[in-house]
Amino acid sequence: MLAHWRGRERYTVFDSAYGDGSGVRALLQAWRDDPQRPARLHVVAIARDRMPGFHRIPQADAGLTLDLLSAPLDTALAQLSARLDFIRLHGIADEGAAFARPLARIAAADALLAEDGLAAEQLDALAAQGFVFDGAGRAHFASRKPRLPVAPAPPRRAIVIGAGIAGAAACERLCARGWQVTLVERHGRPAMEASGNHAGIFMPLVSRDDNIPTRLVRAAYLYALQYWDTIGGIGRAIEGAACGVLQLARDAAHAQAARAIAAEGRYPPEFARWLEAGEAGAMLGLPALEGGWLFPQGGWARPGSVCDAMLAACGGRLDARFGAGSVRLERADGEWQVVDAGGAVLGQAPTVILASGAGARDFPQTAPLPLDVLRGQVSHIVADTLPALPLVLCREAYVTPASHGICCAGATYDLDPDPALRQSSHDDNLAKLRALLSDPLAAADAPLAGRVGFRTVAPDRLPLIGRLPDFDAAGGTERLRDVPRHPGLYGLLGYASRGLTWAPLAAELLAASLEGEPLPLEANLVDALDPARFVLRARRAPRGPNPVYD
């Protein structure tokens, strides 16, 4: 393998059985020890001892990527977006031979394969797909089927518009790959819009059918927990606490449905655990009439501190332009220019990433996207007027443990543009808080205090991550891959109330896509996030009201 990877910019290895990880660790060490190693090594391995799905494991070395896929071999390969240079097949004698076709689909033109213990039918299936064996357990890929050419490395220059949680994550993930990034922010400093809240919470979803939103949030949440450690950690470089989140059941029916999910034993206790009323109440020191889900690794963080940590990690590759005011996009010499209101060019690059939240509606290129802007008012409650909470408590609303003498409660979802604090929204937050605490006198006479922010929400409540569609040029396009796109223009939009959770994995997905690397999510989940999905949906049905994200 070492001779095969030398002289390459990137190299991707697939291992059919991660096992205890010793084989992958040896491979990573061999890469570190080889002075002629490729600049980036991507390792993709099947690991069945995790929750279902693809799991990207952040590495301390920016040149390494590790993906662990928890799925049957043929299913995982069918959903993998990658080009495999070296393939190690072992421990799969009982897997059947259906994996051969999806494996050949993603094998590089000169891929090598090493096998150990494959069944005769598996070897025959691989040979039928173009793998030529030498009789000693090794093969090379010699299919005559045309291969898509390997895309050249892109010019590693980009402009990111927006210095909130989405834009800061994009800057960090690109700078980690050696990109030069210009960050353009209309305010004088980062995190001045929705990312400026005192506290945001992070927690996963659970569902009986493990639907697409559940799978996506789980992947993003698990990645974020590990990613934050690479930039300093929650409670250290990042202000906050991984204190746990308790999501109380709404009513008896909701509790019964949760018990049915818990009885299936799908989730390990460190991820999610159902607590009956007695155990939940003892933990809180408050009534928890129907019980609730405990997410022990969840918690809260101040989004602005997350932004600061991500931008600090960019180092000298980041050129930040704060106080830019309103800007527009223009094309010049095959690249994008960001131009301010006075006509000055703030930056020029072949790649632009719009991570501007509600501001995306001001750009003609993104104005047709069906993004609603929701007003969210958070109330700041003096901690002494509330019970001391050991963790984040939520149901229809949430309340955080005290920080700097304040607990955050909220947030409202209002369809109006009023940026000012108002008593009616405060009263709504207090009513939900009292119901959450089962205390009609909690925060009595709490003065109006808090913050208003605006989040963007798509009709399906999922983010928009990837190349932005050109609605005007779409014509009668019926397939996602055929939707015309604006050249070099990408979006990280529509994070709604889960910006903390979405931002790291969304930025990693976009950066991997730009680099032509293996993607960290299953192909059908990547498609579910593609902004172009709304081009296709626009001609299938008229747009209806956008349900409120909760």
Automatic annotation (TrEMBL):
<dbReference type="InterPro" id="IPR036188">
    <property type="entry name" value="FAD/NAD-bd_sf"/>
</dbReference>
<keyword id="KW-0560">Oxidoreductase</keyword>
<dbReference type="GO" id="GO:0032259">
    <property type="term" value="P:methylation"/>
</dbReference>
<keyword id="KW-0489">Methyltransferase</keyword>
<keyword id="KW-0285">Flavoprotein</keyword>
<keyword id="KW-0819">tRNA processing</keyword>
<dbReference type="InterPro" id="IPR006076">
    <property type="entry name" value="FAD-dep_OxRdtase"/>
</dbReference>
<feature type="domain" description="FAD dependent oxidoreductase">
    <location>
        <begin position="158"/>
        <end position="512"/>
    </location>
</feature>
<dbReference type="InterPro" id="IPR017610">
    <property type="entry name" value="tRNA_S-uridine_synth_MnmC_C"/>
</dbReference>
<protein>
    <submittedName>
        <fullName>FAD-dependent 5-carboxymethylaminomethyl-2-thiouridine(34) oxidoreductase MnmC</fullName>
        <ecNumber>2.1.1.61</ecNumber>
    </submittedName>
</protein>
<keyword id="KW-0808">Transferase</keyword>
<keyword id="KW-0963">Cytoplasm</keyword>
<keyword id="KW-0274">FAD</keyword>
<dbReference type="Pfam" id="PF01266">
    <property type="entry name" value="DAO"/>
</dbReference>
<keyword id="KW-0949">S-adenosyl-L-methionine</keyword>
<dbReference type="GO" id="GO:0004808">
    <property type="term" value="F:tRNA (5-methylaminomethyl-2-thiouridylate)(34)-methyltransferase activity"/>
</dbReference>
<keyword id="KW-0511">Multifunctional enzyme</keyword>
